[in-house]
């Protein structure tokens, strides 16, 4: 799917690359789309863990959330595996809400408790943010919006938390530490 795209890849090719029978693939996934979403959900969860590993060192809970949404936007616009699914916006936004939501909703609540955000419904803010992130990512990857608009997009998303444009601009402009490469993040907290 990464080489040819979701539409062009066949389940038989996927099975051959995985060195399993086609029937085995169909035992776990009804379609290519279902398989692609499962892969993307794993990528999303891994990304959430990698974000958490970096943000565990942040003192400002608002910065934790800002770093997270910035990292998701950057990943969605630069990782081919994400980009190939962006045109299925409602599916990918739902997957993002489910897979990254526990982290983002927690971060929204912590920033609200610290007086940094004014969010009465963290689930709703995260739901709106996931759809906006996917829409913005699709617009960037299709050339409808320049990649240089990323900072402005992040500021607008942060404004949904009630902090105001100046504070959002300051958060969006903070230095961003690098994530560890995929597969190098810490394990989930138990």
Overall pLDDT score: 88
Q: Biggest sheet: strands, sense, closure?
A: none
Helix content: 55-70%
Strand content: under 5%
Characterize the quaternary organization of these chains.
Answer: single chain
Descriptive notes:
Helix content is about 65%, strand content about 0%. The longest helix is centred in the middle third of the chain and has 25 residues, at about 90-115. The relative contact order is 0.14. The chain has helices at about 10-20, 20-30, 30-55, 60-80, 80-85, 90-115, 120-140, 150-160, 165-170. The protein folds into 2 domains: about 1-30, no CATH class; about 35-170, Tetracycline Repressor, domain 2 (Orthogonal Bundle), CATH 1.10.357.10. With about 190 residues, it is an all-alpha fold.
Short précis:
This protein has 190 residues and is mostly helical. It has helices spanning 11-18, 22-28, 32-55, 61-78, 80-83, 89-113, 122-141, 150-159, 165-172.
Characteristic key phrases:
Tetracycline Repressor, domain 2, 190 residues, disordered C terminus, mainly alpha
């Amino acid at each position: 799917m990464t080489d040819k795209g979701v539409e062009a890849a066949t389940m038989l090719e996927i099975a051959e690359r995985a060195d399993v029978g086609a029937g085995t693939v169909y035992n776990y996934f009804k379609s290519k789309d279902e398989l692609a979403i499962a892969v993307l959900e794993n990528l999303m969860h891994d990304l959430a863990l990698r974000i958490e590993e970096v943000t565990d060192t942040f003192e400002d809970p608002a910065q934790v959330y800002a770093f997270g949404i910035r990292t998701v936007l950057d990943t969605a616009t630069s990782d081919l595996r994400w980009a190939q699914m962006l045109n299925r916006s409602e599916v990918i936004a739902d997957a993002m809400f489910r897979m990254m939501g526990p982290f983002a909703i927690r971060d929204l609540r912590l920033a609200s408790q610290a007086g940094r955000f004014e969010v009465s419904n963290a689930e709703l803010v995260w739901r709106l943010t996931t759809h906006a992130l996917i829409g913005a990512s699709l617009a960037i990857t299709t050339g409808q919006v320049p990649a240089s608009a990323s900072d402005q997009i992040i500021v607008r998303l942060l404004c949904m938390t009630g902090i105001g444009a100046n504070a959002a601009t300051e958060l969006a402009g903070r230095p961003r530490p690098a994530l560890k490469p995929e597969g190098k993040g810490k394990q989930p907290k138990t």
